[in-house]
């Protein structure tokens, strides 16, 4: 998968009844390259629509700004009515870190968006949750107290000066809360009962706020109160989890319906396990579960790895296998088929990313390489050969992990296998990336060159594209070189029956490094930035020499064990 930072944006607009207005707002979002609109959920009674889109931070912020701008033009808050609390045309706009980005970094993007909205649109902006400028504003309900109708009075008070934008009432757009929060997962656990009361008992065992404490620990006992007369609660086993039991007529079963509000505190699989333990204690059985909406890839990978470790099996297996284990272990396919491409956010985005070479069969890839087209070429083949080398080393690690006489060493080899999978996946990405870098040069060559300005722009684009085409095989060299560590470890202490496979892996790694090195040198020859070229070639030459030496070390170890 792509390793770029990924965030989700979930703006709530104060319009849920006019599809034409919503269409104009979402058109602004979809017009931004690098952003994917995932969901539009309007509510007539609330007169409010929740929109969900994802992408890299910069394009997401651009899309959010354009959507907020369009909403301020189309929605008149002075005429708005609806059941849901609200204070602005764009009422709230949370950013959610999905992958390869921290909460702190996401909060900083929220501040950038807030400043732009305040400065350019003249809308008062309050920062909330993890982006909040003061502790009391972390809670959205505090910021939104009194709703839209209270804004004229609130904005006149110094303590309600917004974080960005004017300290003045914007009658049409109102005010907007922009923040950074954790991903919220709506998750239901299926039980082998129709009893809502029993499902609630499990929910109370698990959810953070637990249940009311009663005298004698009996349901019929009086509620225990503290010295101030307030009811005392017995907390549940899972932090940041809300839950209730209910009966679903459509399925004919009771469920525990949960919201996981901070998956760092309670991951999905831990919530499942706690429900399973509670159900077992109460004579019930968890039969499966159901995800409502989308989920980040990492949530599924963490779950799959957890259950593999429970089985004392290597976690260094393909991503698809890890997700399969997660789905089966959590019973996510009990009520309906689980389609990872539709349920996992990153996979939805991946559908927009073309990987024509990786989608080919081995035969088609070989035929395409042998054809009269210039791509795929040596760069793509080097990356693929490197991926095969890493795969062989990973295979030896997994075989060693599952070797019966080495049961106590399964974790040791699992670590090696997991590292091999990461290298293999990185090299596979570079198979198509090399072709894309070549195409970038072709696109630059085709730019107009009539005027002096056009010539200069074309020349600059060609130089940047050539640097890109040099960087890709350079990355291939680095990853393939990293795989030698696994090849060497497996040749030395892996399953002795597979030592030759580790040797072949080293041969592939060396071919990948040397092949990519040729591409680095070829492409670098056309780059005018000689300082950049000198540094790049020096590093590439060093890696090339290291690969030659490491190949011989691995082969010597293989010979000793054969």
What distinguishing features does this structure have?
single chain; 562 residues; alpha+beta; Alpha-Beta Plaits; 7-stranded mixed sheet; 4-stranded antiparallel sheet; 17 helices; 14% strand
Describe the overall structure.
The protein is an alpha+beta fold. The chain has 3 domains: 6-180, Formiminotransferase, N-terminal subdomain (Formiminotransferase-cyclodeaminase, Chain B, domain 1), CATH 3.30.990.10; 185-350, 2-Layer Sandwich (Alpha-Beta Plaits); 362-561, Four Helix Bundle (Hemerythrin (Met), subunit A) (Up-down Bundle), CATH 1.20.120.680. The protein is 52% helix and 14% strand. The protein has helices spanning 19-30, 57-74, 103-121, 140-143, 147-154, 196-206, 268-281, 297-310, 319-330, 340-343, 345-350, 362-370, 378-401, 410-445, 452-493, 499-524, 530-561, and strands at residues 6-9, 12-13, 35-43, 48-55, 90-99, 125-129, 176-180, 185-191, 211-212, 233-234, 241-248, 253-260, 286-292. The strands form 3 sheets. Strands 1, 2, 3, 4, 5, 6 and 7 form a 7-stranded mixed beta sheet that branches. α6 (196-206) packs across α7 (268-281), α13 runs parallel beside α15 and α16 (499-524) runs antiparallel to α17 (530-561). The longest helix has 42 residues, at 452-493. It is flat and about 80 Å long. The two termini are 37 Å apart.
């Amino acid at each position: 998968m792509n390793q770029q930072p990924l965030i989700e944006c979930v703006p709530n607009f104060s319009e849920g009844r006019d599809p034409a207005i919503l269409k104009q707002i979402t058109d602004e979002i979809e017009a931004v390259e690098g952003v994917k609109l995932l969901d539009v959920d309007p509510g007539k009674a609330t007169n409010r629509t929740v929109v969900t889109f994802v992408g890299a931070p910069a394009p997401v912020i651009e899309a959010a700004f354009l959507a907020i701008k369009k909403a301020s033009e189309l929605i008149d808050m002075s005429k708005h009515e609806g059941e849901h609390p609200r204070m602005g045309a764009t009422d709230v706009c949370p950013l959610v870190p999905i992958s390869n980005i921290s909460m702190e970094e996401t909060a900083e993007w929220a501040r950038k968006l807030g400043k732009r909205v305040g400065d350019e649109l003249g809308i008062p902006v309050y920062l909330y949750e993890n982006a909040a400028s003061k502790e009391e504003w972390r809670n959205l309900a505090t910021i939104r107290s009194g709703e839209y109708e209270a804004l004229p009075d609130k904005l006149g008070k110094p303590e309600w000066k917004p974080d960005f934008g004017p300290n003045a009432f914007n009658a049409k757009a109102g005010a907007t809360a922009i923040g950074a929060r954790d991903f919220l997962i709506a998750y239901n656990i299926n039980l082998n009962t129709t009893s809502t009361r029993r499902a609630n008992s499990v929910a109370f065992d698990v959810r953070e706020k637990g249940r009311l404490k009663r005298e004698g620990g009996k349901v019929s006992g009086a509620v225990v109160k503290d010295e101030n007369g307030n009811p005392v609660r017995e907390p549940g086993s899972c932090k940041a989890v809300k839950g209730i039991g209910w009966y679903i007529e459509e399925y004919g079963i009771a469920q525990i319906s949960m919201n996981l509000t901070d998956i760092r505190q309670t991951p999905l699989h831990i919530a499942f396990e706690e429900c399973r333990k509670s159900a077992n204690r109460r004579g019930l059985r968890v039969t499966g579960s159901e995800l409502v909406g989308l989920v980040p890839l990492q949530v599924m990978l963490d779950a799959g790895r957890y259950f593999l470790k429970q089985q004392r099996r290597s976690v260094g297996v393909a991503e698809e296998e890890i997700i399969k284990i997660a789905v089966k272990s959590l019973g996510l396919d009990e009520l309906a088929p689980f389609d990872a491409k539709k349920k996992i956010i990153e996979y939805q985005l991946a559908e927009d990313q073309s990987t024509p070479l990786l989608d080919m069969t081995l035969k088609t890839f070989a035929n395409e390489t042998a054809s009269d087209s210039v791509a795929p070429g040596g760069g793509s083949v080097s990356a693929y050969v490197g991926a095969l080398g890493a795969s062989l080393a990973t295979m030896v690690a997994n075989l060693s992990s599952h070797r019966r006489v080495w049961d106590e060493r399964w974790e040791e080899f699992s670590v090696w296998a997991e590292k091999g999978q990461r290298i293999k996946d990185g090299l596979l990405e570079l198979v198509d990336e090399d072709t894309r870098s070549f195409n970038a040069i072709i696109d630059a060559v085709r730019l107009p060159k009539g005027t002096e300005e056009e010539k200069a722009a074309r020349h600059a684009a060609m130089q940047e594209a050539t640097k890109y085409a040099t960087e890709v095989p350079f990355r291939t060299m680095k990853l393939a070189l990293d795989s030698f560590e696994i090849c060497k470890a497996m040749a030395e202490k892996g399953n002795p029956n597979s030592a030759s496979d580790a040797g072949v892996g080293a041969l592939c790694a060396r071919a990948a490094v040397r092949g990519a090195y040729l591409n680095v040198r070829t492409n670098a020859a056309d780059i005018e930035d000689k300082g950049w070229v000198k540094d790049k070639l020096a590093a590439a030459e060093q890696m090339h020499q290291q690969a030659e030496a490491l190949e011989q070390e691995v082969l010597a170890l293989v010979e000793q064990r054969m």
